[in-house]
Amino acid sequence: MFIIGIAGGSGSGKTTIVERLLAEGGAVGHLPHDAYYLNREEMPEDHRASPNWDHPETLDNELFIKQIDALKHGKTVQRPIYDFAEHRRKTNTVTVSPTPVLLVEGILLFHVKSIRKRIDLKVYIDTPPDLRVLRRMQRDISERGRTLESVVQQYHASVRPMHDQFVEPSKRFADVVIPWELHNAQAVSLLAARVREHLPDADDLESKAV
Q1: In which element (H, E) is residue 143 found?
Q2: 3-state secondary structure of 23
């Protein structure tokens, strides 16, 4: 299994790139790191009260790593689904089966050493702060039921300081840094070609079926 990690600040365009790579087709799996947030009551007390959702300790990194390793060993996993309105995991899960290529995505992937060392190709999406703020604002209001005031407050209280402390410094671990403002079609094409290198071709599939 070839693992590609897509990291970058909140609102940088990580999900957009992942969706475009998944649209290429083929046997490609996907584990978004933000599906692995702890339930609010399970978070460390200082983060639970804030809430500071951009700190590494708010995520169940142990489960994330366990499921990556399981997929690498050919086992199917049940990925959690996080309800950002209720700040807890849903009771249902998503079945993820082993694939030749696995995309992992999240703001803190490269900060957590035990995750970082499992990634074969580390890609950092480098997006200007103003665009990241606007994208996050649009997403949190339209998809997560937040108010403009709460988004602004959270950005100043935790998003920006955590980005400066954990996310931006982790860029030095990236194998590839992609400038991403509105789009970067060439970068997506290069990543798609890298994905295809690790996918079985039609002849391989036919020989296995015989």
Answers
A1: helix 129-143
A2: coil
Alpha carbon distance 171, 167 (integer Å): 7
What whole-number distance in Å separates Cα of residue 94 and Cα of residue 80? 6
Domain edges within the chain:
2-199
DSSP string across 31-44 = EEGGGGBPPGGGS-
Classify domain 2-199 at the CATH topology level. Rossmann fold (3.40.50)
What number of other Cβ atoms are within 10 A of residue 208's Cβ? 8
> What span, in angstroms and rounded, lies between the C-alpha atoms of 49 and 108?
21
Distance of alpha carbon 56 from alpha carbon 7, whole angstroms: 14
Whole-angstrom distance, CA of residue 2 vs CA of residue 47: 34
Radius of gyration of the chain from its Cα atoms, rounded to whole angstroms:
17
Lowest-confidence range among 13-27, 40-54, 66-80? 40-54
48, two tokens: 């639970």
Please, are residues 114 and 94 in contact by the beta-carbon 8 Å criterion? Answer: no
Dist CA 99 CA 22 (whole Å): 12
* Model confidence pLDDT, tens digit, residues 71-90: 999 999 999 999 877 878 99
Q: Write the pLDDT tens digit of every residue in 161-173.
A: 788 899 999 999 9
> Model's pTM, two decimal places?
0.84
Reference 158, options 169, 170, 150, 147; nearest CA is: 150
